[in-house]
Design a protein that fits this description.
six-stranded mixed β-sheet, alpha/beta, 10% strand, four-stranded antiparallel β-sheet
């Protein structure tokens, strides 16, 4: 329950208004319920002509009402009015009047009950929306390093399945939390007023009732965590299959993948089946225990009635009705004891993202930078993933307007080196400086405004040409977008599409060729017009014709900009001002294309291999 309350304290405060309304309507519903059922006593007195109920009584003024004589005064005055009605209207008409009163009170009670449930719905739906928003915002804020250790399918599962479980388990229990305690207190107080002896006898069995329910539900959270983990595995495999469908078909691996999916899907089914079977025990167990308690109370209360010990038959029936009414809220509590652990298990998984530490954030007093004027400098930079050093003792200065190329084998640290400039990662040793300012001291958004990226894989969105090109620029006009597309050699094929710049390009640009996707990516960088440009093997995956068009677009983009280019094809970087050769995380050679060839070192070997 402590964990449950923590979740509520985190997410419910913005909805205090609805919370107050639901509490008010629940109190009103409980009071109306008590008074509506109280009409049973005079009905039974009239029907069975009980001596106590039909005995003449005097009206007691309401100002004589005290805590000590409360029950006696109310009982006497109700009997007085009922007998008065019987004398004036007859027993049959009196029954009708009391019945109409009961119907009217029930109408008010059910209205209050409906309003109490209706005012909890905005809280339930709002909290789930807020959790999803926070998850999405956290995903966009977390550094790239976080996602290199997490599977996409697992993250998707947490945002879909786990959040849905929170909604169906924790949020659905809000009604229980703010309704049932009020009903239990109101009904329990009524039971004490009717017969404190019988109520004290009943209380003995309630803890036993709760203990049994707790024993069955204790392991649910642990089993639910395991089940949700298997659901994440299922989603991860679906995500991998969609991404690798071409390879699966090429290698005739459909049956193999089907078997792998069936294994993880069946494991999830078996775990969730055990959770649901355990959960399904809640209703029959609570039903049985409730019936046992009613039987015991019926025996003890019947003894009090038969021995004429301050409890009449109609009053005892009213007591049983109220006792049965209090059992339902207690059963709801027991049901929640099954539901909430499942939701808390999902909340635990969601919190692994929500509470993940973001070490790439603005300093307390960030320095602001609006332009790039002098140089980028790597000073004694070393970087590692976990315990593995990827870069060691990098010293490199990139002057404004120069083009620096990074070459080397896969895994030599080229991509990591350029990722340190926009602070996708932070160095463990040394520092990266822009115009003499450590990038850690700059505002992250200010820093990234200065940098444009064109990657090996053009990352596009399922949107129009216009929205993809203007992605990072606010209030871009069609003329601006068209100019950027022309420079990137993209305007002609865009205009040849069905709706021109308003044509949707499909999921990840799936309706375009590789060269077209890359040129859209270049147009996006051109429109942003950054002073610093990072090219990460921008032409390595293209055919000759596409490479020529893209290379032409890149050369236009690189004019007047400071460029850091990673290249596998050495032919694309012949004109770079300086080429740095990386090997096992260190710069082992540097110079111009011709100078490095004359040096007859590592670069010359790479060049000869490609030639």
């Amino acid at each position: 329950m402590r964990e449950f309350m923590k979740v509520l304290r985190r997410f419910v405060p913005p909805y205090k208004k609805y919370l107050m309304l639901t509490v008010v309507f629940n109190i009103l519903s409980a009071i109306l319920n008590i008074f509506s059922f109280a009409a049973i006593i005079p009905i039974l007195n009239i029907l069975f002509q009980t001596s106590d109920g039909m005995r003449e009584t005097d009206f007691i003024p309401w100002n004589e009402l005290t805590m000590n004589n409360c029950t006696e005064v109310v009982s006497n005055n109700v009997n007085y009015f009922v007998l008065d009605l019987v004398r004036d209207w007859g027993a049959t008409s009196t029954l009708l009047i009391i019945g109409l009163f009961l119907a009217f009170m029930t109408f008010l009670k059910t209205g209050a009950y409906f309003l109490s449930s209706a005012t909890i719905i905005p809280i339930r739906t709002g909290v789930v929306r807020d959790i999803r928003n926070q998850l999405y915002q956290k995903i966009t804020a977390l550094p790239l390093g976080f996602f290199s250790e997490e599977r996409k399918g697992d993250i998707i599962a947490r945002m879909s399945g786990d959040v849905q479980e929170i909604e169906s388990s924790i949020m659905s229990s809000l009604d229980m939390l703010f309704k049932n305690p009020i009903l239990i207190i109101a009904y329990f107080t009524t039971l004490l007023i009717i017969s404190w002896q019988l109520t004290l006898f009943t209380i003995v069995f309630v803890p036993i009732f709760g203990w049994f329910m707790g024993v069955v539900g204790r392991k649910l959270k642990q089993k639910s965590i395991k089940a949700q983990g298997l659901w994440s595995d299922t989603m991860s495999q679906v995500e991998e299959t969609l991404g690798g469908l071409r390879i699966i078909k090429a290698f005739n691996a459909e049956e193999k993948m089907n078997h792998r999916f069936d294994e993880v899907n069946s494991a999830y089914r078996n775990d969730i089946m055990r959770v649901n079977i355990r959960q399904s025990m809640a209703h029959p167990m609570s039903e049985f225990l409730g019936t046992v308690m009613i039987v015991i109370v019926l025996w003890f209360g019947g003894t009090l009635v038969l021995n004429d010990m301050a409890l009449s038959g109609p009053t005892f029936i009213y007591y049983l009705v109220m006792l049965y009414s209090i059992i339902n809220p207690l059963k709801e509590f027991s049901k929640a004891s099954y539901n909430i652990p499942k939701g808390l298990a999902s909340m635990e998984r969601v919190d692994k993202i929500l509470l993940a530490e973001n070490n790439i954030k603005d300093p307390e007093n960030p320095k602001h930078i609006d332009s790039f004027e002098h140089q980028i400098e790597f000073r004694n930079v070393s970087f590692k993933y976990g315990e593995q050093w990827v870069l060691r003792d990098i010293n490199l200065t990139i002057e404004k307007g120069k083009t620096i190329a990074l070459v080397g084998q896969s895994g030599s640290g080229k991509s990591t080196l350029v990722d340190l400039i926009p602070r996708y990662y932070d160095v463990q040793q040394g520092e990266v400086l822009i115009d003499g300012i450590n990038v850690k001291d700059l505002g992250v958004h200010d820093l990234r405004k200065l940098i444009g990226n064109v990657n090996q894989e053009a990352i596009l969105f399922n949107d129009t040409f216009f929205n993809n090109i203007s992605f990072g620029v606010e209030n871009a006009t069609l003329e601006d977008v068209e100019n950027a597309a022309r420079i990137a050699n993209a305007h002609d094929f865009i205009m040849a599409s069905e709706q021109g710049y308003d044509t949707s390009i499909g999921d990840r640009g799936g309706r375009l060729s590789g060269g077209q996707r890359q040129r859209i990516s270049i147009a996006r960088a051109i429109l942003k017009n950054p002073p610093i440009l990072i090219l990460d093997e921008a032409t390595s995956a293209l055919d000759t014709e596409s490479e020529r068009l893209v290379q032409d677009a890149l050369e236009r983009l690189m004019k007047t900009r400071t460029t850091v280019a990673i290249a596998h094809r050495l032919s694309t970087i012949k004109n770079a001002d300086e080429i740095c050769v990386l090997h096992e995380g260190r710069i082992v050679e540097r110079g111009t294309h011709d100078g490095l060839l004359a040096h007859d070192g590592y670069y010359k070997k790479l060049h000869d291999m490609q030639s």
